[in-house]
Design brief:
This protein has about 500 residues and is α/β, with parallel strands linked by helices. It has 18 helices and 21 strands.
Length: about 500
């Protein structure tokens, strides 16, 4: 089984911030999850480096455009390991392999009679690299603004058009047959509503700037940023050779995006693909946005959250955990320091960390670090084992639906139940009265810590693996095939606190 997951490629007009980190970590969580299921996973991210906005940003900084994109792209590349993410490829739209792929896609669309040359005039947003209908804009005095408050300008120029209008009914038919192709459901409904509102042919080239991939056989035009940028998902797996092993194995892929670029991915992109005789994406998940202490995050307000700063303050796994535990994945969320402290203390320090620390410390001090495999379980033990199986089943179901927050909640419900079990069974008392029973209680608890930690590897890979190291769990057994009651004895290494409390 294979799984191909992509982030949106990030625009290089500004350095990476929390929003970029959120998308990348979300993909990393799913990539790691599918690896634990023994899938062959391919994880792509990268940078979108063409367009008027980039050209303008380079001019403003008095930098050669290529030098400018080289620097910002490297900043995004450097951020990936800092976020604890493991990628297979980093794509840049200025690479030759991508230019070749984008021009091949254009030529295929042209060959299939999907492109024509005409003239375009309309409202254009440089920030969004997109044209808008007047009905989609807000009138303010003599000006028009996008819904996010950015200015638009009236542009009239020669342009190539993609016959998007031809694909309205075919897109509706495709989504009716594949209702899980867009998630969450609210985003699916939004796309269907937009398509039913009527699709017009789409301008896909520009002549008013030069920083882009040239249209084949017409050097006066550069490709519209979306047909260029979206093609990156094909470039990485070897397009235009659709018969190569990687392409056949991994396409169609799964796109993780922010909700602001849903239309481009769920309407334009599938239409381009079908028009080029390529299958649409398997699934598109559009997540929400973060605010900062209740305020919209923006450069102009000056409240952009620097991932380096926040991770250095709280810890990488702690921030990965907070981002995906705090709000339902797909919804908007608020990033507040009070919420971080409360969540990390309650779940990581008091629940997970406390259970690991007190059980492993007890084993070292009272059992010579050694707990025998003994499956002489009582009815109470068996009930806890059944609860563990139930929570693992729920965890998988939610993770397969990208309900990452609910998957995490399942693990912490299991850990909470195990803390209650330990308090009730009280191995510190059993030590005086029934050492065999004490061993059984500790053995079951260690198994639940092991299984919970394996389930948390996608969220907190470093911390979960440190705990598995304390339990001496073999690295080859850190996958879902081993979410079981172990047949091995446990030899405990010296425990170290993993989740210190935050004041």
């Amino acid at each position: 089984m294979s799984f191909y997951i992509t982030t949106p490629i990030y625009y290089v007009n500004y350095k990476g911030h929390l929003g970029h980190a959120y998308s990348t970590i979300a993909c990393d969580i799913l990539a790691r999850y599918y690896k634990l299921k023994n899938f062959d996973v391919y994880f792509l991210t990268g940078t979108d480096e063409h367009g008027q906005k980039v050209e303008n940003a380079a001019k403003e900084s008095n930098t050669n455009t290529q030098d400018y994109v080289d620097k910002i792209s490297q900043d995004f590349r450097d951020l990936i390991p800092f976020l604890g993410c493991e990628i297979n490829d980093f794509i840049r739209t200025t690479e030759n392999r991508h230019k070749k792929a984008a021009q091949a896609l254009w030529s295929k669309l042209e060959e299939n009679d999907q492109i024509y040359l005409s003239n375009y005039e309309g409202w254009y947003s440089v920030r969004d690299e997109a044209f808008y209908l007047e009905s989609e804009l807000i009138k303010k005095g003599d000006s028009f603004l996008t819904q996010s408050g950015d200015t638009v300008e009236w542009i009239k120029e020669e342009s190539y058009f993609f016959k998007l209008s031809l694909w309205q009914n075919k897109l509706l038919e495709y989504y009716e047959e594949n209702p899980n192709a867009i998630a969450p459901k609210s985003r699916y409904n939004e796309v269907i509503s937009f398509i039913k509102g009527g699709l017009k042919d789409l301008s896909i080239s520009r002549t008013t700037f030069k920083w882009g991939i040239k249209v084949p056989n017409n050097d006066n035009h550069v490709m519209y940023v979306w047909i260029d940028a979206l093609c990156n998902y094909l470039t990485s797996i070897g397009y235009p050779d659709v018969n190569n092993k990687k392409f056949k194995k991994f396409w169609p892929g799964f796109h993780m995006i922010g909700k602001d670029i849903l239309r481009f991915h769920a309407i334009y992109w599938p239409a381009f693909l079908m028009a080029a005789d390529i299958n649409p994406p398997k699934r598109i998940f559009a997540h929400g946005w973060w605010t900062n202490e209740g305020q919209k995050i923006s450069k102009s307000v000056g409240n952009i959250i620097d991932p380096y700063e926040i991770i250095n303050k709280y810890g990488l796994d702690q921030i990965r955990f907070f981002l995906f535990r705090e709000v339902p994945f797909g919804n908007d969320g608020d990033f507040s320091k009070g919420a971080i402290a409360n969540r990390l203390n309650a779940d990581l320090s008091n629940n997970y960390g406390n259970l690991v620390q007190r059980i492993t410390t007890f084993c070292v001090k009272n059992c010579n670090s050694y707990i025998k495999n003994n499956s002489n379980f009582t009815k109470t033990d068996k009930n806890l084992i059944e609860f563990m199986k139930l929570k693992f089943d729920e965890y998988n179901r939610f993770m397969n639906e990208e309900k990452i927050d609910k998957s995490i909640k399942c693990v912490f419900e299991l850990l909470s139940e195990t803390n209650v079990y330990i308090d009730t069974e009280a191995p510190w008392n059993l030590k005086k009265t029934n050492k065999d029973r004490m061993n059984d209680v500790l053995f079951l608890t260690l198994n639940i810590i092991k299984n919970s930690s394996i389930m948390l590897i996608p969220i907190m890979p470093d911390s979960a693996n440190k705990i598995l190291d304390i339990l001496n769990v073999n690295k080859t057994e850190r996958n879902f095939d081993h979410i079981t009651i172990s047949t091995n004895d446990y030899k405990i290494n010296d425990p170290k606190p993993i989740f210190p409390r935050i004041d």
